[in-house]
From TrEMBL:
InterPro entries: FAD/NAD-bd_sf (IPR036188), FAD/NAD-binding_dom (IPR023753), NADH-Q_oxidoreductase (IPR051169)
Record-given protein name: NADH dehydrogenase
Domain FAD/NAD(P)-binding: 5-338
Recorded superkingdom: Bacteria
Family listed: Belongs to the NADH dehydrogenase family.
GO molecular function: NAD(P)H dehydrogenase (quinone) activity
Organism whose genome encodes this protein: Rheinheimera salexigens
The keyword Transferase belongs to this UniProt entry's keyword annotation: no
Cofactor(s) this protein requires: FAD
Length: 434
C-alpha cells in the first residue's frame, strides 16, 4: 500500500497517544521509509486528560493552563489534525462522515468525508442515566471539559448565593449519584475547594456548610475496587462530612433535588456519575457489532468484529475478557490499547502478523484530594494485589498522568511540563476563581 491513510477519531486518553506514536513512527518527516498519512479528528480544539475532569469541576485545575492544543501537538509529532465530529461511516467507500462546523449558527465548514485505509475509533464514552426521569434535564454530567467548567461556574454561583441576604441558606446541598471513582473523587475534591475558596474571600464558607450526599445503588462504594480500599475511602469520606448512602436507588431528578423511592433529597447541584455507555450514535453504525452499552465489539487484535480495517480502542470498545466480562473503561485500558493498535497497524502495513491484546490490571487508585489517596497495585513486582495509602499512593496516582504525558511528549518534555506546573502552583492562585 502506497502511503496508507490512517484516520483516528477522538483525541482522548487513547486516541491522542495513538496519533502521537504513529506520527512519530510513520508520519511525514518522521524519517521512516514506511510512511503513512495520519489524521486525528476531534470535536474540540484542545485535549485535557479525562481523569482530571473532577478537578476542573471544582476549579483545582485550570483548563486554560493545562489543556493541550491538538494543532500544535500534531505539528510537532508529524500528523495532521482536523476539527470535526464523526456522524457516520461509509464502509463501502472507506470514508468517515464529519458533521458541518458551525459558529454562532452560521455554517463555517460543510459536512465532509475523509477517506481511510485504517480507521481507529477512540471517541470515549458518555454518562449512562438509564432513562431515569428528569436526570438529563436537571443533573450535570462530567463527560467533557465544557460540562466540568459549567459545574464550576454553578458551584461559584451557589457559593455566592449562600452568603446573599436575598437567599439566606444554611448549607449548600450537593448530591452526587454514583459512588465509583468519579463520584468519590469529586466529593473529596469539593471539600478541598471549599477550604481554598474560604482563603480567597468567599466569606463564611466553612466546610460544615457543605452538605454532600453520595448516593450509590449498590451495597458499597467503589464497586469495581477491592473491598478494603472501598472501606478505607468510605471512612475518609465520612470523616470529611460526606453522607454516603449505599443500596439507594434514584428514581427521578427534579429541579429541586432527587427522588429516592418516596424520599425527596433537596439539592442545588446534582451530578450524575453512575455508569457509562458509548455514545448512542455508535449503535448499529455502519452495521458494526455493538454490545449492551453501545460499545463496538472488537476481537483480540482490537479490530471490530465485522471489519478488519476498523479498530476501536478505549471506552468505546467492547473487548471481551476470558471470564465473559469486558475490559473496564479506564485510562489504563485506553493507554494499553493505543500501544497495541499502533504496533498492529505498523505490522499490518509491513505485511507482518498482528498481536493479541491482553488487558493488564495494574491496580486502581482513588484520590481523596489533599485528604489522602488509597488504592491497590497489582502485578508481579508486588506479588499480586497490594493495598497502598498515603504518599506512595499519591505518587502512584500522579504517575498515571505522568505516563500519559510521557506517551504524548517524551520524558524530557514531561519533566519540563511538571516543572512549569510546580511553578504555577507557587505564582498562581491555588484555585480557578472565575
Ligand atoms: C471524572 C473522571 C475521573 C476518572 N478517573 C479515572 C482514573 O482515576 N483512572 C482511570 O483509569 N480512569 C479514570 N476515568 C476514566 C477515563 O477517563 C476513561 O476511561 C478514558 O479517558 C477513556 O479514554 P478514551 O480515549 O476511550 O476516551 P476519552 O479520553 O474520553 O477521549 C475521547 C475523545 O473523543 C472525542 N470525541 C467524542 N465524540 C467525538 C465525535 N463524535 N467526533 C470526534 N471526536 C469525538 C472527545 O472530544 C475526546 O477527546 C475517569 C473518568 C472521569 C470522567
Amino acid at each position: 500500500m502506497n502511503c496508507p491513510r490512517i484516520v483516528i477519531i477522538g483525541g482522548g486518553a487513547g486516541g491522542l497517544e495513538l496519533a502521537s506514536r504513529l506520527g512519530n513512527k510513520l508520519g511525514r518527516n518522521s524519517g521512516s521509509n514506511n510512511r503513512a498519512h495520519i489524521t486525528l479528528v476531534d470535536k474540540n480544539h484542545t485535549h485535557i486528560w479525562k481523569p482530571l475532569l473532577h478537578e476542573v469541576a471544582t476549579g483545582t485545575l485550570d483548563v486554560e493552563i493545562d489543556q493541550l492544543s491538538y494543532r500544535a501537538h500534531a505539528a510537532a509529532h508529524h500528523f495532521e489534525f482536523q476539527l470535526g465530529s464523526l456522524t457516520d461511516i461509509n464502509r463501502d467507500q472507506q470514508q468517515v462522515i464529519l458533521a458541518p462546523i458551525e459558529d454562532d449558527g452560521e455554517e463555517v465548514l460543510a459536512s465532509r468525508a475523509l477517506e481511510y485505509d485504517y480507521l481507529v475509533l477512540a471517541i470515549g464514552s458518555v454518562s449512562n442515566h438509564f432513562n431515569t426521569p428528569g436526570v438529563a434535564e436537571h443533573c450535570i454530567f462530567l463527560d467533557s471539559p465544557e460540562q466540568a467548567q459549567r459545574f464550576q461556574h454553578y458551584l461559584l454561583m451557589a457559593y455566592l448565593k449562600l452568603n446573599s441576604p436575598a437567599h439566606p441558606k444554611d448549607k449548600l446541598n450537593i448530591a452526587i449519584v454514583g459512588a465509583g471513582a468519579t463520584g468519590v473523587e469529586l466529593a473529596a475534591e469539593l471539600y478541598h475547594a471549599a477550604a481554598e475558596l474560604n482563603l480567597y474571600g468567599y466569606a463564611d464558607l466553612r466546610q460544615n456548610r457543605l452538605n454532600i450526599q453520595l448516593i450509590e445503588a449498590g451495597p458499597r462504594i467503589l464497586p469495581a475496587l477491592p473491598e478494603r480500599i472501598a472501606l478505607a475511602a468510605h471512612k475518609e469520606l465520612t470523616k470529611l462530612g460526606v453522607t454516603v448512602r449505599t443500596s439507594t436507588k434514584v428514581t427521578a431528578a427534579t429541579k429541586t433535588g432527587l427522588l429516592l423511592d418516596e424520599q425527596h433529597v433537596e439539592a442545588e447541584l446534582m451530578v450524575w456519575a453512575a455508569g457509562i455507555k458509548a455514545p448512542d450514535f455508535l449503535k448499529d453504525i455502519a452495521g458494526l457489532e455493538n454490545n449492551r452499552i453501545n460499545q463496538l465489539v472488537v476481537n483480540q487484535q482490537l479490530q471490530t468484529t465485522r471489519d478488519a480495517k476498523i479498530y476501536a480502542i478505549g471506552d468505546c470498545a467492547g473487548c471481551p475478557l476470558p471470564d465473559n466480562k469486558w475490559v473496564p473503561p479506564r485510562a489504563q485500558s485506553a493507554h494499553q490499547m493505543a500501544s497495541l493498535v499502533a504496533k498492529n497497524i505498523i505490522a499490518d502495513i509491513a505485511g507482518k502478523p498482528q498481536k493479541d491484546y491482553h488487558y493488564k490490571d495494574h491496580g486502581s487508585l482513588i484520590s481523596l484530594s489533599r485528604f489522602g489517596t488509597v488504592g491497590s497495585l497489582m502485578g508481579n513486582l508486588v506479588g499480586g494485589a497490594m493495598m497502598i495509602e498515603g504518599r506512595i499512593a499519591r505518587l502512584a496516582y500522579m504517575s498515571l498522568y505522568r505516563m500519559h504525558q510521557v506517551a504524548l511528549h517524551g520524558w524530557l518534555r514531561m519533566i519540563l511540563i511538571s516543572l512549569v506546573a510546580r511553578i504555577n502552583r507557587i505564582v498562581r492562585p491555588k484555585l480557578k476563581l472565575h
